[in-house]
Amino acid sequence: MANGGKQLRLWCSAFACALLALVQADGLFVDITYLDSAVAKGAVCLDGSAPAYHLAPGFGSGVNSWLVHFEGGGWCNNVTTCLQRMHTRLGSSKEMAKQVAFSGILSDTPDYNPDFYNWNKVRVRYCDGSSFTGDKEEVDPRTNLHYRGARVWQAVVEDLLAKGMNRAENALMSGCSAGGLTSILHCDRFHQLLPVGSHVKCLSDAGFFINVKDIDGENHAAAFFSDAATTHGSARNLPSSCTSMLPAGMCFFPQNEVKQIQTPLFILNAAYDSWQVRNILIPGGSGPHWRNCKHDISQCSAKQLETLQGFRDHFLEALEEQGNSSTRGLFINSCFVHCQSEIQDIWFAPGSPVLGDKKIANAVGDWFYDRSPFQKVDCPYPCDSTCPVFKTS
Asked: What does the pLDDT average to over 323-335?
């Protein structure tokens, strides 16, 4: 029970992965759209409410280009953790803000988002707790929990197709954190639903979660995802190239399926992903001596930093599983951050992180439009002076 309790505390707080995304520059505020027609199909949030998204129409040369961005927010792996989400914005559209600010890759200003500013831009709300993989028909009347993430994904994409995405000349599915994992798991499926001849690619921001033991030698990440796959009935909606060889829970780790993805994919990730460090490598209860280090990498002792460098090594080893396809994009910096495409100051601003000679927005744009490939991995911390500094208590 002790280990299960630790999982409960850590992974139920996974919504914190999206908090940095709320550090927004002043910009476009977009109203929510409730997809009420999806309810009859059983495509609903955990509480049975309608799915939702925010759509900013494209303009000018971008009217036939679509960016579909899936927000993050962790996962729930059993009845208890899913009930904890059920009456929050991560489990019910009734609790979602009626407007959200679009910035970073969702900005409508060329000075802030040079390649995607005038596209149709969609932020898909996350309310199923399974990275849109769950689908169980039965609903326990005692809890009223609905595990229907895969239906939500399908219903949202079909609705966007009906609103003009069926004429898309360009399309990019992206996401942050659990949404970044969504953009990997559903990448080929997204491509298959777009018109033949469309220029379609996927971007995963902070979605490359790795199967690694914590500092106490426990592998609770694998156990958590195994429980999540069972709870949500995810197996049939995870890539068959993985589930045909491994238990479903292991297919939440991108290293186990990324090589088989056919659609061009860009991996944007910090080698010292702050959420993974705080919740997978050094989970809560790991000792007060880790408190300062896990929230501010500059406060780590030499021995603690050695542990983080070991995490980076494991991350890069997992990343190597994708092979070296020329269609893949790679921006792996050494910043201590989680989610970089939604934050204006990181995505594209005067002080944004740089790898090689490019900021993230330029690297992704050049890769998407086939202007030039981009596959770069940063040198180890603390060599990169362009990284932003975020400190949390």
From this structure: 93
Catalytic residue among 54, 146, 191, 338: 338
Q: Is 273 a catalytic residue?
A: yes
Asked if 232 is an active-site residue, the reply is no
CA 99 vs. chain centroid, Å, equals 21
Please enumerate, as own/partner, the contacts of 312-318 that have beta carbons within 8 Å and a separation of 24 or more: 312/271, 312/272, 312/380, 312/381, 314/210, 314/212, 315/208, 315/210, 315/212, 315/269, 315/271, 315/273, 316/271, 316/377, 318/208, 318/210, 318/211, 318/253, 318/254, 318/255
For the chain, what percent of residues have pLDDT higher than 70? 92
Q: Output the pTM of the full model.
A: 0.92
Q: Which of 275, 233, 269, 386 is nearest to 20 (CA)?
A: 275
pLDDT digits (tens, 9 = 90+) for 295-305: 999 999 999 99
Q: Which of 49, 92, 93, 177 is catalytic?
A: 177
199 belongs to the catalytic site: no
Task: Exactly one of 273, 274, 341, 378 is catalytic; name it.
Answer: 273
